[in-house]
Structure formats: C-alpha cells, structure tokens
Amino acid sequence: MLDGKDMEGDLPPIINKRVENDGIVERDAYEALCRGEINPIRPEEERKLYCYLKMDNPFLKFAPIKVEILRHEPLAVLFKEVLSDKEIDIIKAVATPRLRRATVQNAVTGELETASYRISKSAWLKEEDHTVVARVNKRIEDMTNLIQSTSEDLQVANYGLGGHYDPHFDFAQADVIIKGGVKKKSDKLKIEMTQPERGGATVFNNLGTAVFPSKYDALFWYNLMRSGEGDLRTRHAACPVLLGVKWVANKWIHERGQEFTRPCGLDENVQEHFVGDLSPNYRPLNRT
C-alpha cells in the first residue's frame, strides 16, 4: 500500500504563478488590506469617532437607527441592525431565481460584459416585487436622508467561494445622459445579509482601511463630494470570500434628485461630518 509520501512523489509540482502585469497596480496593497493589514488609526483621529442614535425625522423618534462613525475623511458610517432575519430570508428567496453573473461596463464601448475581476452573481429587485423591498427602500431613505425615487433598484449580490470585486470606483468618470437628466452614482449603501467565516471585507485602497462583514449592518459612504465631483479617495474593492458565502444588498443613489437633500456647500471642499449634515461651510480642521 502506498503511504502519503509515496503519493506526494507522484504528483507534479503545482505551478500557479501570478501574472506579472494583470492591470492592477495596487494589487499588493489591496491584498494586504484583505488580510487585515490596515493602516492604524491615529489617536487624534480615533477620538473623533463615536456612535449615536439617528432620530432626525418624526418616524425615527419612535424607532431610532444606531449609527457608528467609522471614518471622517471621507465620511463612512455603519448603520447597525437594519434588517431582520425574516426580511433577509424573503429578499434572498425573491432574488435567488433571478441571479445572473455580475457584469461591468466596458469603458470603450459602454456595453455590459463579464470580467475576471468581478466574480459574483446579482439580481435587481423592484418595489413591486415584494413589500419587503419597498420597506427596505423607505428605511434606506430614513438612514441616509437621500431621496430614493431616483436611485437604482435594490441589487442583491451573492459571492461564493473566491467571489470578489477588484478595486474600482462607483461613480461614473463622465456624466451619462439618460431620459430625465444626468445619471451619476452619488452614494452607496451596502447591507450585509450574511457573514462569511473568512474574507469578504470591503477595503478602501487609497485610505488603507477595511470593513469586515457584520450581518444585519449597512455600510454607507458618499462617492461624490457635495460639489458633484467624484471623490477619488472612495476607490474600493470587495475582498475574496475564503470560507462561507456572502450575501449583500446594495443600493446606489444618484446625484439627480438630491438638490435639496445634499446641496453644494460654499466651496468645493465642503463635506459632511455626520449623515444628513447640511452645514454650508463645514471643513475638516486639518484642511487648509
């Protein structure tokens, strides 16, 4: 009978060399962040982070939303426990038969196509598909203070083993003209519906930060400055799932329709220091 060593001797060497030029210059930094090798938060910045109850509309007076500020520049927050298990089960059940391989937009042709740097399946849910979808959209409006009538449908994404999305921007590099106005993705909310045992973090390369999945919670950030310009600091990625499965519900909210909910400030550097902040002249202390 052959023992383990004899069997190993019959196996050819494993050759799995990385392609030297795979088109992603930030690959090493991206993979380090996925491993949890993040930039430590400076003490003076950590002191500015806090949690609070969001109660800035009449409904939220009775059902406040728990918010954790993760980062100020640019702002990123975690809305805590925003979905129930029953709602998650319904969303997954409605989405499952519609799941298809996720696509990206070709920068040259504008056509949608599959790509090796985005491995997942996704489905798009409209409010009329189920009352839970409409309820979640209203909840997102309460969370973000942003109008949902011009946002995209709720995207449900499934990342299996090895599923990932390499570093990318969510905002369009140029305005896309659609019927009724200009389409530019403004803000993103990502609700974690499951929690993989290993991997699956959302990482921001230019900031050296990572947010690991926590079930029921929603990660939110602004992709655009209040001036309407894309915030280059928001380049981000979905790390590979190493063990388990990852289900998320994504919501992209367009700039159009937010003229009064997120107006421009007095200069191009104005930005929020909490969700819903409409201060006309707020600027971070360390900006000149």
How would you portray this structure in words?
With about 290 residues, this protein is α+β, with helices and mostly antiparallel strands. The chain has one domain (about 20-255): q2cbj1_9rhob like domain (Jelly Rolls, Sandwich), CATH 2.60.120.620. The protein has six helices and 20 strands. A nine-stranded antiparallel β-sheet has the order 1-2-3-17-13-20-9-8-4, with helices on one face. A five-stranded antiparallel β-sheet has the order 7-10-18-15-16, with helices on one face. A two-stranded antiparallel ribbon has the order 5-6. A hairpin with a 4-residue loop joins strand 2 and strand 3. Residues about 175-185 and about 285-288 have low confidence and may be disordered.
Mean pLDDT: 85
Assess the beta-strand content as a share of residues.
25-35%
The low-pLDDT segments are 177-183, 284-288
| Domain module tally | 1
Largest sheet: 9 strands, antiparallel
CATH superfamily, by name, is: q2cbj1_9rhob like domain
Oligomer: single chain
* Order of secondary-structure elements: HHHEHEEHEEEEEHEEEEEEEEEEEE
Beta strand count: 20
